[in-house]
Write a structure and sequence with these properties.
Blueprint (H helix, E strand, L loop, with lengths): L10 H11 L6 H15 L4 E6 L5 H15 L5 E5 L2 H17 L18 E2 L12 E5 L9 E7 L4 H4 L2 H12 L5 E11 L27 E5 L16 H11 L1 H7 L18 E3 L3 E4 L4 E4 L2 E11 L11 E8 L4 E8 L10 H15 L4 E5 L7 H11 L5 E5 L5 H14 L3 E4 L7 H7 L10 H11 L32
Parallel strand pairs: 1-6, 1-7, 2-4, 2-5, 5-6, 8-16, 11-14, 13-16, 14-15
Antiparallel strand pairs: 3-4, 9-10, 10-11, 11-12, 12-13
Length: 494
């Protein structure tokens, strides 16, 4: 075999030499990854995302990339983060074997055995550095005090780190800690496939979880789904058309889309499909002269409001108030959804603060009636709400209801028919709340996500729209057309 200078071989040659040593062919998809990684690194792209279909060998190739980087610069420090320590150590062990056996790196193995551990190792290098050449860490591990020139996030998003709101939030917070580990001009490389609609790899931000942009905004991306834009397989030597059809059938449409086509969807398919919702931007417009409410050019003839209260600043149930209007054609408009939060610094108690917020909603949207669910803690709230409505000069009636039917049944009955008929419109501001996230994750057989917004909206949808004329007194408004009285002639005998 020809001898190479220590910095002579490019990455594609490095990969081909290794595969030849292993009696393996180098597929085109690996050459595509290798060329992209080398070009990105040499052009000093420091934020990289590599996504490829499951079993594409991306982690193996990234392990070769780590060995190649150390081959070029033995003083580099590389940290591997994975969903857990076992997965991270697996890549580190793979890189160790490459360095031991690759024809270009065998001399890099240190003489001391204590520098060649299973989850960390240090190659022969000129500098005396505290951190090893490569170290494995689980994403939940303590990385305080560590320093790295390159951090490889290999499959940090898996079902165990993204199947609930809390886990996804915790994952994002932990990944944000990398800024304190990376050296100046350090490189971040994410490698993986999406496992959820709210994936860290998504191209667009999800406003309903508070994202103004994608989590990996500004990252240089390479996406290699199993099938290209023309439907051709990227690794035809391994996957035939029959294999792909069998895989699609066995995995199901969502998992195939997520893991093989790299499209962020919820692998655990929910019952409610947010794509069936219609969106609108129009504000509510009250025309005082004709005592009529409009949304856009649609005249509203009914309204319902449901408040499902909850107390306590914790990760349990949310206190949610939903406002729904109906037009003359029978379409429904989810115009406002309030996930109520209170100010702990305020002198007023939590019940009063929440009731005040709901009263202001009633006044803002000209609501003739609010229904309060009084199960459990809500039993004493209606009178507090009536007082706050009076103080806000909101002429709104308060109804009390105690729900005894299962929540699953209420949600299914509230949404199923309307969404199937595409008669449910949602205001753009509602899309910024957790409502869509709850809808995507909700499953009738029980799930780990929240459903308080769904329950409140289902309650509002279940209420017969209030279309009766009401006389509220001076300064109040009436709308909805009202009911006119007439006297019929009755000069006949019965």
């Amino acid at each position: 075999m020809a001898r190479f200078d220590i910095t002579e071989a490019d990455f594609k040659l490095f990969v081909v030499l290794w595969n030849q040593r292993q009696n393996l062919q180098t597929p085109d998809v690996h050459l595509d990854m290798a060329q992209w990684l080398e070009h990105a690194y040499k052009t000093q792209e420091r934020r990289l995302l590599l996504m490829a279909f499951r079993s594409a060998g991306k982690s193996t190739l990234v392990g070769l990339f780590a060995a190649w980087l150390l081959y070029r610069d033995a003083n580099l420090r590389i940290m591997v983060l994975a969903a857990d320590q076992v997965l991270a150590a697996k890549m580190v062990r793979n890189v160790k074997r490459i360095i031991e056996r690759h024809p270009l790196t065998q001399k890099m193995k240190p003489k001391r055995a204590d520098q060649w551990a299973s989850d960390r190792f240090t190659v022969r290098r000129m500098l005396e550095l505290r951190d090893p050449s490569m170290i494995a860490k689980g994403v939940c591990a303590n990385i305080t005090g560590s320093r790295a020139d390159i951090v490889i996030c290999d499959d940090v998003e898996v079902p165990n780190t993204c199947d609930s709101v809390e886990k996804r939030e915790d994952l994002r917070n932990r990944l944000a800690e990398m800024i304190y580990v990376l050296t100046a001009c350090g490189t971040q490389l994410y490698v993986g496939t999406p496992h959820h609609f709210y994936s860290i790899y998504a191209r667009e931000g999800r406003p309903e979880i508070g994202e103004d942009g994608p989590f990996l905004d500004g990252f240089k991306r390479l996406e290699l789904p199993l099938l290209d834009d023309h439907g051709n397989c990227r690794w035809s030597e391994r996957y035939s058309d029959y294999d792909i059809a069998q895989m699609r059938r066995a995995a199901g449409p969502n998992k195939f889309e997520s893991q093989m086509m790299l499209r962020p969807v919820n692998i655990a398919q929910g019952r409610l499909n947010p794509d069936l919702l219609r969106h609108y931007d129009d504000d509510l417009d009250y025309v005082r002269e004709i005592k009529t409410l409009f949304i856009g050019d649609k005249r509203m003839v009914g309204a319902s409001c449901w408040w499902d209260p909850a107390f306590g600043n914790h990760r349990g149930d949310n206190s949610v108030c939903a406002v729904v209007f109906t037009d003359e054609s029978g379409d429904y408009y989810l115009h406002h959804l309030e996930y109520i939060t209170v100010d702990e610094r305020c002198d007023d108690d939590e019940a009063t603060q929440q009731a005040r917020i709901v009263a202001n909603i009633a006044k803002q949207f000209y609501l003739p009636r609010i229904t309060v669910e009084i199960n459990g803690i809500g039993r004493f709230l209606p009178n507090i709400l009536r007082n706050q409505l009076s103080l806000a000069h909101a002429p709104t009636r308060v109804d009390e209801v105690s729900s005894h039917r299962p929540k699953v049944a209420r949600i299914m009955e509230g949404f199923d028919a309307l969404m199937a008929a595409r008669r449910l419109y949602v205001h753009r501001n509602v899309l910024k709340t957790p409502f869509l996230m709850e809808m995507r994750e909700w499953r009738p057989d029980g799930g780990k996500g929240h459903d308080d917004g769904l329950d409140a909206v289902a309650g509002a949808l279940s209420q017969q729209p209030d279309r009766l004329q009401r006389v509220y007194g001076r300064g109040a408004h009436q709308w909805g057309g009202g009911v006119k009285h007439m006297r019929a002639k009755s000069d006949f005998d019965v």
